[in-house]
Each structure stands twice: as structure tokens, then as C-alpha cells.
Amino acid sequence: MHASLSSLVIVIVAAFLTPLLLHRFRLHMIPVVVAEIIVGIIIGKTGFNIVEQDMWLETLSTLGFLFLMFLSGLEIDFSAFANKKKRKGEKEPNAFFVASIIFVGIFLVSLGLSYTFVWFGYIDNAFLMTLIISTISLGVVVPTLKDAQLMKTTIGQTILLIAVIADLVTMVLLAVFVSTYDPSHGNTWLLLGLFLVGVLFYFAGKYFKKRSFIETMAKGTIQIGTRAVFALIIVLVALSETLGAENILGAFLAGVLVSLLAPNQDFVHKLDSFGYGFFIPIFFVMVGVNLDLRPLFTQFDILLLIPLLFIALVISKVVPVYMLRIWYDRKTTLAAGFLLVSTLSLVIAAATIAERMGMIDENMKGALILVAVLTSVVSPIMFKKLYRVEKEDRKKVVKLIGTNQFTLAAVRDLRADEYEPTLYHIRQDKIEQTEHIFPIVDIDDYSFETLQAHEALTADVVVVLTGNEQTNAQIATWAKQQGASRVIAFAESPSIVQQLKDVGVETISLALSAGAMLKAFIESPNVVHMLTHRDITLHEIEMNNLAYHGVLLRQFPFLGDCIIVRIFRGHESIVPHGDTEMRIGDRMIVTGSEEYVKELRELLEGEYH
């Protein structure tokens, strides 16, 4: 018992110290999960060999792997599969169509390369090698795209969709492979039973999701949502093994089901923190602990496999992805290809399964995992070296549907160097007969056809204030469906407000706004003065410059006479102080002179590098 607890303590302390060391030495280029494997190698069989394998670590490591597969399924944003309407003049591809074509290319190239490894005698089964070469790590792709602020761009969505399709297809094919080639496992057709049960769970989850008693039980000590997720994982894992599939397929399917149910982001963050805060680090450290790399350097054929497999992974991704050269420059295309070279968790799964089935030996397994670790280090570094965002001076396009005293007043105060507004109104409506420096478009009605013909539904921001709440809701929904980045609609009724929030529309109430402003006038007149006077107003700046990621505010020398009033990080509102870290994606509320605010905006929203 003493030995097992000692090993557990060593692994948990190692998992705890790893991100601290990365932060201390500013090794942001290395993914944390890769660093955990490297630390495991140091304390494991290859290094000091101070960790003993036992039931404690084996159980926690297995749970970590299952939770990793669950979160991989949860990472899939199925809204990305929607065919969003492109804006007029955009020369960009249909992300889903191009991603599907590229993945087919990746799979075919991988199939051809796998026969090379069969010919060299490294492996007997070309199909297994195809799965190993064609898989892509969502765990590396997603954080890298988030850091680069590319998740909502067409190129980012295309890269993400290629990784998502690869993850889905290779996971299912791995389950089919095991069922086909392993006599101890069940029939492939039994997998349909697993997916059928998944469909039933989905409809059950959808039915209970909005029940009021579920919302009540989701708080406090009950946390019914978290209990439901763990019950779902365990049930599907057990069912997966019973039907002859790998347990990881059940965990992955559980993640996909939860993603389809569109949980709120707070709940997703809770699951992320639970997984990446405890179970998953133990799994990755143990991957490194169990790797014995010493024999790899005594066998020339295995040593030769490492660069050959790495080259195969690069060729299988970069060659098909070069199709993007039709729409993007050479560096952007190569950057996308190198990012998709990354592979990790599914290779570990495939290598573990293949060793269990006797298709590869322990040394071959070690070589496969080592190459996967190398790709996870090299590919994000290559992406960041190759990818450059051309600094845009493009103004934000704002379309305001419904011209009246509110929209006219708002547009007058928008900065001309940052926003390009257009107002739309019915011909019969009377508006101020004064000279305007912004365009006002006369339209016959608020029908979908009319608005679409005048390109009123596609913009960075669409604001709807027609005077009719139902019309506002309908137009706002159309704008969201047509791919407008942000849609703001005026609504008073709670039912319509909820309806619009469900489809991602931001709502504002004139009555509530007027009441809030009056209250502020009474209680804090100087705050209202700041909000309404341009020379001392508040500004929102999004931090997109990777060079300042992780920098403390007291170490940031470029504030001038600007003051950071608040920092919004996801759903978190942070009161800034000297030891507050700046992070990619932070939205900073600042006040100060116009000159310094402009300089600060250019600095923090500068190009990604």
C-alpha cells in the first residue's frame, strides 16, 4: 500500500508542477498534454523509473483516457457543419464541402503510404496503419486556433472541420476494425445497437433538458447535470464493451451526445476543469511513465521508423490540404497543413489496441506514441511560424433595420473610422429631413426577399428596431440564419426575448434601458457622464496579440494615460490589479485619451505572431 500511494503522489505532483514549469520558463509553444508525457518519460521507465504501476494509477489513468475521449466528442461544434451564407464578394470556400473533400484526400494518401510501411515489414495490416496516419488531434488543433483567434473565420472553420471529420471517422473505423479483426470482440453490426441507444439518450436528454425541476436540481449540492454526464459516460462505456467495441467509443459517443444537446458554456467549463484538472493529466503522465524509449535506440529498424512515420504524417496532411491554395496564399495553406499533422490521443488508443491484439510489439507502440508526441510539439510551432494575419483596417459593417430617433442618434455617435453603418426604412416612414453623412436606404417592406435583395441581413452587426416586436424577432432570426456575426433586436416580451436568446440573438429593451439610465442618473450621474460624452467614454478592446499573453498588467508598459476598468474573460468579470494576467481573448474595458486608446487598441488587437 505504501508503494502504491507513493507512486500516486509522485504522478499527481508531477501533473501539478508541469504547467507551472511551462509558465515559469514561458514555453507556451508546447501543449500542456505533451509536456505531461515528457515529464512522465523523465520519471518513468525511460528516465528515473521511480513510479510503480499499480491498481490506483491504472484505474485513474483509464478514467482519464475515457474522460479525454468524452471531451474530444464534446469539443465538436455541430453548428460548424451548418452551411452559412457567404457575404457578397467573399472569395472563400464552403467550409464543410472543402473539409470533406480534403479529408477524403488525406485518407487516400494515408492508405497509399500505409502500404509502404507494410512493404518495409513494420506492420502487417495496412488498414490499421491508415487509421494511425490519417487521424488528427482535436486537442492540439482547437487550442491553437483559439490562440490565433481563428475559430470564427472561414479558414479556421475549415481547419476545424477537417480535424472534426477525421476524429469522427477514424474513431468509428477503429471500432469497426477491432470488431472485425479481434475474435474476442462482437460482430460489427452490434455497433448499430450502441448508436441506437445513443439516439434514445439524445431524445431523452432533449426532453428533460428544459424541465424546471432539472434546472433547480442542477444547483447546490445535487448538481444533477454533472451526475447525468458521468452516468451517461459509464453506461455507454459499459454498453460499448458489452457489444464488443472499445470502451473509448462509448466515451466519445457520450461527448458527442452532450455536444448535440448544446449545454451552456458554464457547464462545459465545469466539465473541462474537472477533466483537465485531475483525470486527464494523470493519464498523460502515465503514458510517458509506461514508455520505455531505450530499446528504440538499439534497434535500427525502429529508429528509422520514427522519421519515416513523421514524414508520412506530414505528406498525408500537407498534400491534400494544398487544395486550399485556390483561395489562400501559400503560407496560410502550408500553416493549415502543418497544424493538421498533429496527432495524439487516437494514436495512443490505436497503438494500445494493436499491441493488445498482437499486431505490433511494445517497441513499435513506443515509436508510434513518440512520433505522436513529436507532431504535437512541432505542428503548432510550424503553424505559428507560417501563419500571419494581415492587419486589417476594415471597418465593421453595421446594418440598422428600422430608422427612427434611436437608431439615428446611435449612428451619429459611431466612430467613422471604425464603423460603416447603413440604415434601412420603409419609404412611407417619416424621418428627420436633415443631411446625413451615412447612407439611408428606402425599402418597400420588411420581407425576407426585400431585405436579402438589399443585403441588409449580412453584416458584422445587424440591429433591428422596426417598432413591431414580432417583426423584430422574425428579421433578427433571418439575419442570424444568414450568418450575421452579431444580431441585436429590440424586444420587451419575456417569451420573445427567450426565443431570440435561444437562436443567439442579443436583445435589448427600451423600457429597461430607460429605467436603468434614469436610475444611474439618480445614483451615479458621473458614470452616465462617462457613458454619454465621447471624450471620456469607455472603450472595449479585445486582446489578440500573442506576444502579451500571460503578461502581468504591472509589467505591461504601454498603457499611457489609459486605465483598465474591467476585464471580461468568457463569462467571468475580473477587477484588474497589478498581478492580473493578460490572456488571448480578454475583452478589456478601458478609459483614457482618444490618442492613447487608439494606440492601445492597435497594440493589443495587432497581428497574431
TrEMBL record:
GO cellular component assignments: membrane
Family recorded in the similarity comment: Belongs to the monovalent cation:proton antiporter 2 (CPA2) transporter (TC 2.A.37) family.
Membrane topology: Multi-pass membrane protein
Molecular function, one GO term: monoatomic cation transmembrane transporter activity
Chief localization: membrane
Biological process terms in GO annotation: potassium ion transport; proton transmembrane transport
Transmembrane segments: 6-22, 29-51, 63-83, 95-120, 126-145, 157-177, 189-208, 229-262, 274-291, 303-328, 334-354, 366-383
Source taxonomy: Bacteria, Bacillati, Bacillota, Bacilli, Bacillales
Location of the RCK C-terminal domain: 526-606
Full protein name: Monovalent cation:proton antiporter family protein
Subcellular location: Membrane
